Structures are given as structure tokens and as C-alpha cells.
Amino acid sequence: MNIKELDPDSSPQAAFGARLRKSRTERGWTQDHLGDQMGYSSTHISSVETGHKFPTLRFARRSDAALGTGDLFERQWHEMRHGALLEGFPQFIDHEGRAAEIRLYEVGVIPGLLQTPEYAAVLAGSAVKRGAITREQADERVALIAERQAALVRTPPPLVFAVLDESCIRRPIGEPEVMDEQLARLVEFADQPNTVLQVATFDMGARRPFDLPITVLTSPDRSLTAYSESAQRGHLERDLAFVLPMLTAYHQLQAEAPSQAASVAMVNQLRKGTP
Question: InterPro entries given for it (predicted)?
């Protein structure tokens, strides 16, 4: 692909590549020279410039350092990564990655922190088929889930409490093998020393305080943040007057839901094909 064939408006990835090429050529640099400055091959530089390869955060930061562009490419990378995310979600991810305690409730699908890559890929692929996001954005959603999960493997690890509506484990996503691996992942999650897994069964009825997904985060300084979302947008709440009632309701949900042992038994029954 030559420079005339690259359309910066075709995708955020192409826009990044076009800006990189423009910054390089303005300095009279070859791809080989820029690659030497950044620690990448000229082939890698070419793939990013033509939009064939999605840049990493490391690549964006090294671009800024080599080209003297401040944080221009890093900011463009963040915009690109968050382009397909709900409003408020990028800020939530930052808080989640630093939280000492995470309490989440999910409806309909396994939450991102507990998803297998295959399960996440099926969900992202479905969004592509509906025309909601592009294939590139789908790939980034899956990559972001992996990054979120990796950020939780730290010392000391956060306490993670997960209450899943029964629909999360009964709704089939992908082929049977994908769902079986996902259910196995839930059992592994429950076996960790810093986690608690519960399933809010359908027969809880009105005793279930939430109808939509909710997450309550406790920071290392014990401050609280809550995140909730609808189909259109997400909302990060920091006002204690609103967060505390959510935390209280979450504790009530945990008290009403079956124990972890009973919940894991239910998941294992599903894996065996038992209703």
C-alpha cells in the first residue's frame, strides 16, 4: 500500500498510521531509521503506518520519544482504544486497576474480569455482525479484557466478590466447548484465596436489589467508587451519598444469594448437563 492509498478517515488505526508516517517523512527519516530509534524493525513500522498492525501502548510511547511529539501518539492510542467503549468506562478501568476490593454484579453475560478469551471473542464477534463495532474494535475489546485481568495479578491481590445473575451461567455463548471452558473458569476463580463467587438464582425474585450490572470499588485509601451502565452509557459515581446505598444493597444481595459452595455446585451441574 502506498501513501496515496492510505485513508486516515477509514479507521482510528489508519489515522494513527497516517500521523506516524507524516511525522516521520517531515523529518526526512526512512522507516529503517525510525525503527532503529524505536527498537522496531522497518517491517513493523511499515505495518503500523499502513494500518495493517494495531500499535501497542509501548509502540505509541516510543514513537513520541523518538519523534519528540510529547504524548501525542500516546493520547491518540488511548482515544483509539477507548473509541468503542461506553462513556465513563475508561475512567472506571483506571479505578478498577488500583482497587483493593472489587464487588461486581452482572446480568446476562459473564463479567469481563472472569471471561475466557474465547468467550470474550464470541461476544465481540457478535457485536461486529450487528454492525455495532468494527473488527479492529472487537479485537481491542478482547485485548482490553486480558489487560484488565492481568492488572489484577499483583501483590497483594485485590479482593474480588462476584455475584452473577443465574442468566449469566445459563445463557449459552458460542459453541458448547466455549461455554464449558467458561464455566470451568468460574470454578477456578472461586477456588482462589482472594475471591468469592455467588450465583443469584432466579427464585430470589424481588429479594434481588439490582436489575442492572453494578460494580463497587474500594480504593487502598478505603474511598468508594461505583460504576453502573445501561445499553447506551456508563456512569462512574464518586459521591458517597450515592455509593454507600449501593454498597449496602450489595451486602444484602450477598446475604440473600446462595453460598459459594452451593453456587459452584450449580455451575458444575451445568457442566455435566444437569438442569
Answer: Cro/C1-type_HTH, DUF5753, Lambda_DNA-bd_dom_sf
